[in-house]
């Protein structure tokens, strides 16, 4: 590996320097991902779309009730923001949904573990 490039105002654009960096770039491996996995069908986009007119609390409740797992995880990660914004509504409406979301995940984990243990 070559040392990091110098500051922008002192960049070395000599042929030897550039070829050295090119070699470093060629050493990197590129992880290819099928293009299809990143594309979304209209149905997938519709399923992931949430009404923009919902308040943050309403959006959180909706995502925890009917959203994808990753959307529920995002709501949980943003609980501190919701608590600062509207603590009473967060505790009354969002927190019970978070508990249900977490319970569902724990249940799923237990099922997977019991299936794995039975195979071993």
UniProtKB/TrEMBL annotation:
Put simply, this protein is called Protein phosphatase 4 regulatory subunit 4
Q: Which GO terms describe its cellular component?
A: cytosol; protein serine/threonine phosphatase complex
Q: Which terms does the record give in the GO molecular function aspect? A: protein phosphatase regulator activity
Which species is this record about? Answer: Suricata suricatta
